[in-house]
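INFO batch 0412 | record 1 of 1 | parsing
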Amino acid sequence: MLARRGYRTQIVDHCVVIAPERADHVRIIRNLAAQLGVGPPRRSGVRAFQVTLPEYEDFLLPDVVRYRADAASPWSHQDIEIIAEVVSKATHYMDYGPKLAAYATSKIPLYLVVDPDTKRSHLYSAPKGSDYARRLTVTFGEEIHTPMGLTLNTSDFSRD
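INFO prediction complete | emitting tokens
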């Protein structure tokens, strides 16, 4: 699905959403990708990959996806370690609603939501049904210690 440069198009909850990628949004995504060791994003914009989940017809483009190092194919949802989404005004309801439910239902082990408006990050873990059993919320500036042994620094997530 194509969109103008600087915009991201997704189908979430059977609705087409075209959201602008603001500079601060892209900066946080690049920061997360670097901390998670996910290949270098393109110089202009951010490289996004569709995630196909069983039982979902939606066209989901998470901001950052990290697959297990021993994954046979980087396209199977079963090999995903963590998905991260950076909230914007256009995607707020999706990141905290349909995407959270889709990722939990598909047993994505970790789901990180970075919210520049509230200056908080939320790490969801232990998927159970269409929700996650555990939640950790940190204010920007605090570290996130993930169950997979990674520590993420949130001090550079603030808006300019």
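INFO post-check: Residues 31 and 102 are 25 Å apart (CA to CA).
INFO record closed
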